[in-house]
Each structure stands twice: as C-alpha cells, then as structure tokens.
C-alpha cells in the first residue's frame, strides 16, 4: 500500500533527490571533535564580504526590521542597472541566483517540455527539470582529453535542439561548476545564433568575475541582440555574501515580467538588499578577491600537479582534481584532518574532488592534509 502522505505528491517531486550541499564546518567539528576545520567545499569568498557590507548591515540593524522589505528592490535594481548600464525593468532579483533558476523552471518547464543542459553541469539545472516533471536532455560533455575536459560542448547542444523541438529552456554555465571549464565568447555567440527565438537560454555567470578578462564574453551586448537570452549573476561568490542569498537576472523586459509574476513578493530580505547594494559598490574588494583567487588557484594547481594529480584547467574559484581512482577515501582522509572539500560522485565524476580556493593559510592546510592522505 502506498504511503498516503506521498500518494498525491507530484511525480516530478517524488523523483527528486535533495541537493546535498558541502558539509557545514560545525557538523565536522561535532562529528570528529576537531577545532581547526577548514571548509573549501562551496566556492565561497575566503575573504568574506567587503567591510562596507558589514558596516551597512550594522546600520540596517538599527532600522525597523519589523517592516517588510521593499518588495521591488528599487534601490538595488537601480544600482545594478547603473553597474551594467541596463534598464531596471530588465532586472529580476533572486534569493540567490538559485531562485532565478527555479522561476525559469516554473515558467518554461513542465510535462511535455524539455530542459537542455550539459553532462557534469551545475546540479540545480537537473533538479529544476525534475521538479517540474519536464524531460531532461543532457548534452554530452567535451571529452576527458579535450582542452576543456568535461566542459560544455555547444555543438552537442545545437544538435540536441535540432533533435528535440520540445526543448523550451537551456542552461549554460560559463565558467561551469563543477568542472571550472569555460566557453569562448565566439562559441557562445555562434550558439545563440542557432537557438530558435522561443527557446530561453539561461546563461549562468556565477563565476564571471574570476574569469580571465580576455576570455569574457560581452553578455550585455548579447542581451541587446538575443531577446531569448537571460543572464544570471550572483552575490554569493566574488561578492562574498552567500549567507545572505542575493542574485539577479538580466533579460528582456517581457521575460523579467514573467519572472516577477512567479517571484514571491518579498523574496529578498531587507538585510540582503542592503548588503548586495554595498557589495556591488565595493569593486576594489571584488578585485582583491579575484587577485587572491588567481594567485592561489595557480599555487594549488602547481602543488597538486606536483603530487602527480591531474587538475582540470579552471577559470573559477575552485579546482577540480582527478585522483585516477575512487576519490571517496581521499575525501574521508581530508575530513579526518579537518578539511572539507566537495566529492563529485553526484556529478558522475567519482574519481574527482572539487576544492574551493581559500586563503593562503587554508590552502596550506589543504595541501598538508592532502600530502598526508596520499603518503
Ligand atoms: C554558486 C552557483 C550559483 C549561485 O548560487 P546562489 O543561489 O546565487 O548562491 C549559480 N550557478 C552556479 C553554476 C553556481 O556554481
């Protein structure tokens, strides 16, 4: 007999598996009685937010938290509009950019429709398709020996679109998480030219700031030319406020209008609104965070390569390392030494671990623990 509490749940929801996030520091401290725990598992900014963000938050605490926030996010949208030189009615705010990805699912995915994304892409894309009971069309990734190993193959995306006229929504991450791989601006633009106008392309630039500037595409220009394009940005990575949940989409006003219909009226709380505005204003902090990341990403890459490991080339704030065998024991060994990294079994890459780039001290802790585990 079926459980009466699930019998009426929607099939897409029943098929879901809850997203498993990186282990919180407190959990490992509790489990192993460790004090000095380093978390390099969720691609957060190791410098934390700009000091002006914490100052703005302190000031906001003296305001009236009993009042609902500004549901339109007027001030933050004005600031984002100035930053990108884009009309605020092209902007939708999200409780993290994850919120935006879910809005897109609710608007464009459902039974009889399909969502297209790459193998080894950000896990949320498949969750969105599954939750809506839409078909997931998974484009094969670039081969392991490619210059962008396990990265998106936009040729395969275009072929999938030809084969599957039921695709209504496409997710592209550039750079991609969890592989760190990137797509050239030319490849993205060539692909956009091949997408039918009724298919929405969600172009996820969560790691945009970490990319080498010479590799970055001009998504602002593409937005003008491709009305079916939506660009996602987040305050969780380079801006350092993952804990507050703020992200946004840039799109055509018509798509922004649909996003706003499904958005809860107060999806960003008043502290997140204040913090995101202050974070955006401090581009020097972003630049310092990016500089630290570039330096330390190279150092981690060199050190892991020196240990005989293959490191995927990364344009993001993490490295993805191939252990050539099941990486679970290595993951466990690192945990026992107080270092939390991200296993990749759920991304169909069980031989890999993803390590977020931390501060110099955190990265040293990781490298020491890794050497001990591999010894
Ligand atoms: C981290 C990440 C996000 C951002 O998530 P938030 O909800 O904004 O914290 C979006 N896309 C990708 C690919 C990511 O890795």
Question: What does this 3D model show about the protein?
Answer:
- With 375 residues, this protein is α/β, with parallel strands linked by helices.
- It has two domains: 4-49 and 284-374, Alpha-Beta Complex (Aspartate Aminotransferase, domain 1), CATH 3.90.1150; 64-282, 3-Layer(aba) Sandwich (Aspartate Aminotransferase, domain 2), CATH 3.40.640.
- It is 41% helix and 14% strand.
- Strands 2-8-7-6-5-3-4 form a seven-stranded mixed β-sheet, with helices on both faces. Strands 9-10-13-12 form a four-stranded antiparallel β-sheet, covered by helices on one side.
- Helix 8 links the parallel strand 5 and strand 6.
- It is globular, with a radius of gyration of 21 Å.
- The termini are far apart.
- The model has no long low-confidence stretch (mean pLDDT 96).
- The structure holds pyridoxal-5'-phosphate.
- Pyridoxal-5'-phosphate binds at residues 43, 96-98, 122, 173, 177, 204, 206, 234, 236-237, 242, 247.
The hetero molecules present are: pyridoxal-5'-phosphate
**Rounded average pLDDT:** 96
The CATH topology of the largest domain is Aspartate Aminotransferase, domain 2
Looking at this structure, what is the CATH superfamily of the largest domain? Type I PLP-dependent aspartate aminotransferase-like (Major domain)
- Name of the top-level CATH class of the largest domain: Alpha Beta
Give the % helix: 40-55%
* Tertiary shape: globular
Q: How many H/I helical runs?
A: 14
Largest sheet: 7 strands, mixed
The CATH architecture of the largest domain can be named as: 3-Layer(aba) Sandwich
Q: How many domain units?
A: 2
Secondary structure: number of strands: 13
Strand order of the biggest β-sheet: 2-8-7-6-5-3-4
Our measurement of the CA-to-CA distance between the termini, rounded to an integer number of angstroms, reads 52 Å
Low-pLDDT windows of residues: none
Structural class: alpha/beta
Beta-strand percentage? 5-15%
Radius of gyration: 21 Å
SSE ordering: HHEHHEHEHEHEHEHEEHHHEEHEEEH
């Amino acid at each position: 007999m079926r459980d009466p509490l699930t019998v009426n749940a929607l099939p897409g929801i029943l098929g879901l598996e809850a997203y498993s996030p990186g282990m919180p520091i407190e959990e490992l401290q509790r489990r192993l009685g460790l004090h000095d725990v380093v978390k390099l598992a969720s691609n957060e900014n190791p410098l934390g937010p700009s000091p002006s963000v914490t100052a703005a938050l302190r000031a906001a605490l003296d305001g009236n938290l009993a009042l609902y926030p500004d549901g339109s996010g007027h001030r933050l949208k004005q600031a984002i509009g100035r930053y990108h030189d884009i009309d605020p009615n092209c902007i939708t705010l999200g409780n993290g950019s994850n919120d935006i990805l879910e809005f897109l699912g609710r608007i464009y995915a459902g039974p009889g429709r399909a969502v297209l994304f790459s193998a080894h892409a950000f896990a949320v894309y498949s969750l969105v398709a599954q939750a809506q009971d839409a078909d997931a069309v998974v484009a094969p990734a670039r081969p392991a020996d490619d210059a962008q190993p396990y990265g998106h193959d936009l040729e395969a995306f275009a072929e999938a679109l030809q084969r599957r006229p039921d695709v209504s929504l496409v997710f592209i991450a550039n750079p991609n998480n969890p592989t760190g791989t990137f797509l050239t601006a030319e490849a993205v633009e060539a692909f956009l030219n091949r997408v039918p106008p009724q298919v929405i392309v969600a172009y996820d630039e969560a790691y945009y700031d970490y990319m080498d500037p010479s590799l970055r595409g001009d998504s602002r220009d593409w937005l003008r030319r491709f009305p079916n394009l939506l660009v996602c940005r987040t305050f969780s990575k380079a801006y350092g406020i993952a804990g507050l949940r703020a992200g946004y989409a840039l799109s055509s006003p018509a798509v922004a209008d649909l996003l706003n219909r499904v958005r809860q009226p107060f999806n960003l709380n008043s502290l997140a609104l204040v913090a995101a505005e202050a974070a955006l204003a401090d581009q020097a902090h972003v630049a310092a965070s990016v500089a630290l990341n570039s330096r330390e990403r190279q150092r981690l890459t060199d050190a892991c390569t020196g240990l005989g490991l293959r490191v995927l080339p990364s344009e993001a704030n993490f490295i993805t390392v191939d252990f050539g065998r099941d990486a679970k024991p290595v993951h466990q060994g690192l945990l026992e030494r107080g270092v939390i990294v991200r296993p990749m079994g759920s991304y169909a890459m069980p031989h890999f671990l993803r390590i977020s780039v931390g501060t110099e001290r955190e990265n040293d802790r990781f490298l020491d623990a890794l050497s001990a585990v591999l010894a």
